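LOG
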Amino acid sequence: MKHRNRIIALVVLVAVAAVSFLFSGKKPDAPGRKQSQPSAMAIAVSVEAASVAAVRDSLSVVALVDAWRDVDIHAETSGIVRSVSSEVGDRKGAGQPLLRVDDEVAASALRKARVNRELARRDFERYDRLQREGAVAISNFEAVKLRLEDAEADLVAARRRVEDTAIKAPFAGVVTSRLVEVGDLVQPGMKVANMVDLSKLKIVSSIPEKQVASIAEGMVVQVTTDVWPGKVFLAKVLSVSAKSSRDHTYRVESAMENPKETPFRAGMFARTAFVGSSSRQALLIPRRALTGSIAAPEVFVVTGGKARLRKIVAGAEYGSHIEVLQGLAAGDVVVVSGQSDLDDGSPVTVSQGEAGR
């Protein structure tokens, strides 16, 4: 029994010695020692300096191509359509017939008006001789004269009614619609066709109220369209509306000859560029330097190795650059790449090759 107790005591001593040995290898931290904190890492960015350059004010907007003249043609008499001499797409010269209405009644009235006018003329000539000879009273002669004038007026009206039975093209152009067929009954004022004159064009643009003051009559306009890519056409401002539409834009019409090799059609979309006649100095930065929206633009300006967020007032765009009206000065270095990783006051390092720009 005593031997067994000795063995147990020996095992306990060995275990205690082993634990003491393991803990003896660890050294306590020196009093007052602090753990080191990692320093803030500088963020690599690309920069470019704000610079002053000569610019020419321009404005580019979407426009609509209109015909020089676009006219609805109406009947001026009543009757049955007897013949049609126009189809959609036909080119008609000024005065050429488009359709003809039954003219039997009108032609009969014209013949009667001619007879009445001839009778009135003969009576006038006879009474004129008698009046000079003193054979008739002056009042009788004047009554015959008035009957002649009345007969001549009736003849003019009858001739016009016959002419109205032939509905003609008011100008040289293209028929875009015909709304009646042979046998249809037309009435005065009824629309029967439409024609457009595409020898010249009206380019209609809607200009915002902030820019309309820079648009003047006679100003040269550059016109482009996706229908004829790569081609630039020239127009001149014809008129600027004095009244805005509900969306506070002003209608501007520009006149342009319709090129024969690359013809435009009414209703096409185009883009108009209004270019100023003189240049001016403006402070520019790359468009990609902006953070946020164009309505509330901000940029990061690098000063003393840190990026500082600064609000600016942006002006017009010129290609890949934008004008700065307030908030920057020439020479200020703005971040153009890497803004997404920055906060106001973040330390930065300029990428190799960008520092000298």
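LOG (cont.) second protein
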Amino acid sequence: MLGVAGAGPPRRRDYADELTRAFPAAQLVNAEGSVIDLPFQLPNGRPTALRVSLPSHFPQDHPVLCVVVPLQHPAVDTTGRVHLRAADQWGSGTTSRRLPADLVAVVREAMALLNASDPSAAAAAAAASAAAGGNAWQPGPGAGGGAGGAGGGGAGPTDPEGFLESLSTSQLEALLCDEEALRKAAAQWLQETPAARALEDVRRQNKQLATANLSLSRSIDEARGHVAIVRSGEYAAMRSLFEDLFNRQKAIITKMGPDALLARLRQEVDESDAASDELLERFQSGSISSLEAFVDAYVAAREAFHMVDLKRQAAEHHRMVPDDLMPVWSREAVAAALGHGR
């Protein structure tokens, strides 16, 4: 059993586990298990759920009970919070004796109060809870100013009208005459409202998150140092390799690129044309005596000239036409030009 002597004080998670065992339909709202919804039906058949919130300092702080769906009930205020004496007095000096089973008993009492078929009985229970101090406003010693104290340590309701009605005429006159005492009384009353309690819970959670984030600063600095080491080591080597490959690619394109290929083809065209012209000049000068030998040599020279010139034309056409309109044979012509025999 949780919370027995020698086993150590129960943790917040132990209370949540006890609730989920006692109420099989319970639903965990968050991963921490600090907010639990307990579905149930009202006497009129309307489905709703009782939300049990366990603050970060639970069980030192009291649990917060709210209804998920708005409900008209004497024990439920306009914010949906259920006011129950056992819940509001949870942390009043008896924390060490609060066991998970006690929280289950509080929740069962809240459900019984909400499921009361007699509204007058529910109202009486809510009034008894407020009169017992679970919902009371306790003004400090300075709340009464110089007229003997407005509250005098007495209890008062959480709504402003009820608070004012609980004061005597002399106390009201004292507050009206002492603005500072009125301000302190109003501030102390506001601290006991559901909104103020919820705000305090949010502040505590934000403080915990901020502390956790600050604890990560050292890890972030170490990660930044690792990134700097990687950048200074691997980055320089990879950049050097990239520049080397890029320069090699540039050199190959300079020698074997389309411009270089076209220049070579134009040069071969000029050389073939010049060779055939030279044969004609030699024949005309009488250097070649045989007509048949001249014709064979001249025809071969012109044939070579026209073959190279066709390749040149194909290469120039490939340079002028976009790639998406270029026929397949033009690429084969370029490949053939690259393999032209020396």
